[in-house]
Amino acid sequence: MLLFFLLLSSTLQGCAQIVPGVKNSNSCMCKVNLTTWSFPAVRYEAVEKRIETCEESLRSLVEQVFVSNQRLPQIQLQVANFTTRLEPYQYLHARGLYTALSIRQLGQELSQLETDITSVHGQLNNSQSQELTKEVGKLRKDVQKMQTTDTINMKTVKEKLRYLKNNVESCKSIPKDFKGQQMYCMKGLISNISDPVTTKINPFDKSYISGSWGKQAQMDSESDKESYWVQALVSSHIYGNTFRLYQTYKDFMRSTNHRDATFSSSATGATAIEGPSAVLYGGGLYYHCYRSADICRYDLQTNDVKRVTLPGTGVGFNNQFPYCYYECRPNSDVDLEADETGLWALYATVGNHGNLVVSRLIWDSNSTTINVSQTWETRLFKKAASNAFMVCGVLYATRYVDTYKEEVFYAFDTATGKEDNSLALPLEKVSKGVASLSYNPINRQIYMYNDGYLLAYQAYF
Questions:
Q1: Whole-prediction pTM
Q2: Distance between CA atoms of 240 and 232, rounded to whole angstroms?
């Protein structure tokens, strides 16, 4: 009604008529032009349609606001989730891949590399050491150019420096039989891995989902050649202070005739183990020391614990650089491995942008000390692998495929510095999570601690 009145009043406004009339029998008769007061039906319908359109738009807007209010908490939750997931990688923005290397630091690294190459060249004086001397000379010229121009990509130079440092490590103090006395090591990379040849629940309980196990791994060890061991993490599946030793494979399979050794007063003591990192090598158990960048060695005869600090800028520990890929294994920052060439530590550093670092360890029985003899830097981001192991001086890394399969996808040869990320060697498993992988050079088997299950595989070359 209000709309009708408005339309009518707007139509009549300013259109009043004065007409003459004639009196006839007490009546007044006159002629009036009624078209002046005709109802604006067309305009009424147009306005009515506009109102309907506005009402529909308003309803649509109200629905959108309602849906947005419902989705907003979900979006906020997703943003918070992404922020939490990205938090461990913030160091990359501040100090890692996206920060240009200072020329001064680069110069210092290059000077150290020149010193190492000069030392190696003085000892070997062969074609390889001569080539390294030429390469580092070219790199020095590139660094000098950086001081006056910005035409050289610093990251490219950093990669070249990494490559040269790895070559120096491969030359430095490496015996001619670095590949080991085993002829199969000369065949190249692993060609195949068998289905599990051993499957067993760990001797403690299936609920102990994280740890490591295997066979005594030092090839020239005269004692305990057939001994097997299991180290299960007890405190939050992260820390531990004991491991179990079996003298024979039969005892291990039967879970009988074992000996328990304690290498720390508690699971959170200074010499306790952190993460699934152990390997029994000769007369000692090597593992990652509790909340530190150190490697510990527990002597089975004397019960003494010796330690050494891993080299590198910002060595990751306390869950900074665990194995991840599909699902992170808590505190798997440092990994101890053994193969035909000796003992190894696998870890990551801030200086190498969270990529895997490989260091060779040597036990000096005369001075009873652990020494780090060589270190290589790879380009494989440690959190992009589910686990790793060493065979014939070659680092192999795995990734998650599904609940019942892992895959060896990457290899780094410390003898040549070459990388291969085209591998696709399957590893069957019985559960989703892989706590540890280790290789034994005596029987060429690979040992997996698979969420409380103990699996062994045969490696073929």
A1: 0.68
A2: 7
Q: Could you report the per-residue pLDDT of 26-56, keeping only the tens digit for each?
A: 777 777 666 666 667 777 788 888 888 888 8
Residues 6+ apart with CB under 8 A from 437: 387, 388, 389, 398, 446, 447, 448
Residues 6+ apart with CB under 8 A from 136: 110, 113, 114, 117, 164
For residues 312 and 294, the answer to whether their CB atoms sit within 8 Å is no
Q: Judge residue 367's burial from the number of C-beta atoms within 10 Å of its C-beta, 0-12 exposed, 13-18 middle, 19 or more buried.
A: exposed
Residue recorded with tokens 């299960």: 232
CA nearest to 356, candidates 433, 289, 435, 414:
414
- Is pLDDT above 80 for 454? yes
Q: Of 81, 91, 47, whose CA–CA distance to 351 is shortest?
A: 91
> Which residue, 282, 262, 281, 283, is CA-closest to 273?
262
